[in-house]
Every structure is written in C-alpha cells, then in structure tokens.
Amino acid sequence: MPLSEEELRLLEQMERALSEEDPKFASTLRGTSLRRSARRRAMIAGACFVVGVALLMTGAVTQLAVVGVAGFLVMLGSATVGLTAMRGQAAAAAAPADPRQAAHPSSGFTVIDGGRRGRSRRNRRSSAPFMERMEERWRRRRDQNGGF
Q1: What is the rounded CA–CA span in Å between residue 72 and residue 84?
Q2: Region entry Disordered: which residue ranges (predicted)?
Q3: How many percent of the chain have pLDDT more than 70?
Q4: Helix 32-62 and helix 23-30: axis angle, to 10°?
Q5: What sign does the CA torsion over 132, 135, 137, 140 have?
Q6: Which one of 2, 61, 88, 137 has the minimum C-beta count within 10 Å?
Q7: 32 or 89, which is more confident?
C-alpha cells in the first residue's frame, strides 16, 4: 500500500530533521559518502604507493637498505589500504544508494540490511533434525536422477 501525500511529507520532514541533527549518521544511511570516502582513500593509497616506489628506488640507488625497506613498507601498507578501500567502494556501489529501494514489497517501510546479505543459506540453522534433512536431500537426489 503506497504512502499518502501527508505521510510522504512527514517522512521527508523526519529525514531533514535527521540530516540536520546527525549529518554523519544520515550520510551513512544514504551510502553516498561511503563511496566517496572509499574512492578518496584509494586515491591517497595510490599516491602513497608511488611515494613508496620512489623510496624503494632511492634506497636501491643510494645503497641505503633502511630507505629501501621503508619504501617497501610504505608500498605494502598503501596497497593494503587501497585494496580495502576498493572492496569497500565495490560493496557500497552494490548496495542501493536510496534506502527506499530496499523496501519490503508488502509494506511501505524501509528495510536496512544489517550485514546478512553475504551469508549463504548453509549458515542458517534448520529446525529439522540432521537425519531428516539428510533423508530429504537423498529423496531429492533420487527423484532428480530418475530413481538411482
């Protein structure tokens, strides 16, 4: 059932009030700043990686092992931060930017996924005992393979 005009207006007012009261929380719910910050971290990590390469090459040319090792560590750290940021950016891009896009089909309420998206069905516990589940799997396989 869609929301009435008055309900939409009240919802917009509540969203504006939330944005004014706690802008960081509101931007987290929107997801836009997550992508922006992940992109920024990835770019900074790329620049640090280039600095690390320069340090490594400087250490090799001047034959100072300490400078070379420092350059390698800068490269390693920046690559780790960059890859983590790129994964975060991909995850933020996969999530809908507007939380209303993840609305439950039977109501007008918004559903915010609490990190359960990546879990598979195997992690969920079934209420049936173990042997009953195994027998059911066996029956399904037998039916699919024509009785064998």
Answers
A1: 18
A2: 89-148
A3: 67
A4: 90
A5: negative
A6: 2
A7: 89
